[in-house]
């Protein structure tokens, strides 16, 4: 087992997948959640089983991997972690509350990071008393199989914190790309204008969702079309990222398509709601 201990703040789907990722590489991991989650054991076992079917965790090692993960709703347990990743919902005010709490109890942690996909790392760091150890570590979903990790330095992030983060990420066989803080980082700056343009094509009646997606799969060698990907990400998240990009850059090229806003207002959020640009409900 590796000598350091990883802490994950947040026991949602991403938080549990991150815990499995670190534990599958023999790293002791703590998941903290703000409340008790009675279904945790069932959920973590289900996720581990899915990963084993995908060949990402050896079936015989599932029990060992899960045993390396501790679940708690007592934030003081984070005191024993030296590498902490906040993976709660993309809400700056909520993140601020959690980051302040972790900062107080985990004073000896070498790195405190956020898995944010769009928020300012320097601003998030300002909610802590030690912004020099704070950085962004943007994992892509699903983190077990996606190789890329964007590592974002804030204005006050030290080289020491960055080096420690890169060493830990190297132990889980990922490909980290270090970038300075910029709105949307690299992938989202490229990805979301494409998704937005696909929504515009759909709203203008140029073609249907399936054809638009097939064009990008067959013509650009994308494994998934932009509208299908938007449904997977969540249309509410897509809208939020586009709005943030437009606000941060002042560039109207990020202005969200009206159709995207309409779908979000109607609760058509993609896979998680059962309907978005495609229907995921049975018998519909």
Automatic annotation (TrEMBL):
Which keywords fit this entry according to its UniProt record?
Answer: Oxidoreductase
Q: Show where the 3-hydroxyacyl-CoA dehydrogenase NAD binding domain sits.
A: 6-180
Pfam families (alphabetical): 3HCDH (PF00725), 3HCDH_N (PF02737)
| InterPro entries referenced in this protein's UniProt entry, alphabetically | 3-OHacyl-CoA_DH, 3-OHacyl-CoA_DH_CS, 3-OHacyl-CoA_DH_NAD-bd, 3HC_DH_C, 6-PGluconate_DH-like_C_sf, 6PGD_dom2, NAD(P)-bd_dom_sf
Residue stretches making up the 3-hydroxyacyl-CoA dehydrogenase C-terminal domain: 184-280
Recorded family membership? Belongs to the 3-hydroxyacyl-CoA dehydrogenase family.
Q: Would you tell me the protein name for this molecule?
A: 3-hydroxyacyl-CoA dehydrogenase NAD-binding domain-containing protein
Q: Which organism is it from?
A: Methylomonas defluvii
């Amino acid at each position: 087992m590796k000598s350091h201990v990883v802490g994950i703040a947040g026991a949602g789907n991403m938080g549990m997948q991150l815990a499995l990722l670190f534990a599958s590489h023999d790293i002791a991991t703590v998941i903290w959640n703000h409340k008790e989650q009675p279904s945790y054991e069932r959920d973590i076992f289900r996720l581990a089983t899915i990963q084993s079917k995908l060949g990402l965790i050896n079936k015989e090692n599932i029990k060992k991997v899960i045993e390396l993960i501790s679940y708690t709703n007592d934030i003081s347990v984070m005191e024993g972690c030296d590498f902490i990743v906040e993976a709660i919902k993309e809400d700056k005010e909520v993140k601020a509350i959690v980051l302040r709490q972790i900062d107080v109890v985990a004073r000896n942690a070498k790195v405190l990071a956020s898995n944010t996909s769009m928020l300012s790392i320097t601003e998030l760091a300002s909610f802590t008393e030690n912004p020099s150890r704070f950085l962004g570590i943007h994992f892509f979903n699903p983190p077990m199989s996606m190789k890329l990790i964007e590592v974002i330095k804030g204005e006050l992030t030290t080289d020491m914190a960055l080096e420690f983060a890169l060493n830990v990420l190297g132990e889980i066989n990922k490909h980290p790309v270090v970038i300075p803080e910029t709105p949307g980082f690299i992938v989202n700056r490229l990805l979301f204008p494409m998704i937005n343009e696909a929504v515009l094509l759909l709203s203008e009646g140029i073609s249907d969702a399936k054809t638009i997606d097939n064009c990008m799969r067959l013509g650009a060698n994308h494994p998934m079309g932009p509208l299908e990907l938007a449904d997977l990400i969540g249309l509410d998240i897509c809208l939020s990222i586009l709005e943030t990009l437009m606000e941060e850059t002042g560039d109207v090229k990020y202005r969200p398509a009206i159709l995207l806003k309409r779908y979000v207002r109607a609760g058509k959020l993609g896979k998680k709601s059962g309907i978005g640009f495609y229907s995921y409900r049975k018998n519909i």
